[in-house]
Amino acid sequence: MTTDSLPQVALLERTLNTLAARTGFPVAFGGFAESGGTVLTSFAGTRTGALRGLVIQPGQGLGGLALARRELTATGAYQQSPDIIHSYDREIGVEGIITLLAIPVVVDNQVRALIYAGLRDRSQLTDETLAAAAGEARRLAWELSVHEETERRLAVLSASEAHATHASDLALSQEDLTVLYTELRDIARLIEDPELAQRLSTAGSMLRAGQPREVAGSRGAGPLSPRELDVLTHLALGKRNALIGAHLDLAESTVKSYIASAMRKLEAANRFDLVLRARSRGLIP
């Protein structure tokens, strides 16, 4: 991963702003891990450019210690701490930071980034503050993993589209297509990047594009709402209402309501008929 990935940089910058807000620390900064070290590239609340471009090496400074330990590391008095190698005292001092915490962001057992939060006075770090900081690191790790998995799946779909002009030409069964479509909708529902969400929507349309459809539109075949489609894609996989609700964070009664509404719109006699009618109209693969 390189820092040239604008969506990932945006995720990091948003995390730093949230980290500062949740911890009450006015300064937050970080960067992505690269072969030569972790380069500090993103900042919130800094007063100078002293930290910009600083390369953090494992074992050096508080961040380097956090990298070596692969865990949150903190100090209430950075300059006087006997536990760290003071390689970056000048840069930290110029920024006036005294209390500092550093958290490595680990994805698939690899350190992908390093984030910091700092105060310009001495402070006792509470368990609540440390837990909030650790939570932001975990959230960023999850968002990075989702982004990378999404990019991988979109690349697979693009490659498949280049070699096949019809969805039925792909070496995927009906169930495979439905599973993939459902997962793309689930990811799109969870991410906050609008550009990536649009790409996922386009990918879903690619999956539906080659499905057989009725030549003439039927009465009651109005478009389903996004949430009705979410429920319907899981229903097409044979899931029961309770399992659909657990997956989509919906009450079972709400799932039943969405299914009933979709059945009215598509004039379906039952759940099985609903799935068949949705497929015949190209609403799901």
TrEMBL record:
CDD domains: LuxR_C_like. Keywords: DNA-binding, Transcription, Transcription regulation. This is Helix-turn-helix transcriptional regulator. One of its GO terms (biological process) is regulation of DNA-templated transcription. Residues 217-282 form the HTH luxR-type domain. Pfam families: GerE. It comes from the Bacteria. GO terms for molecular function: DNA binding.
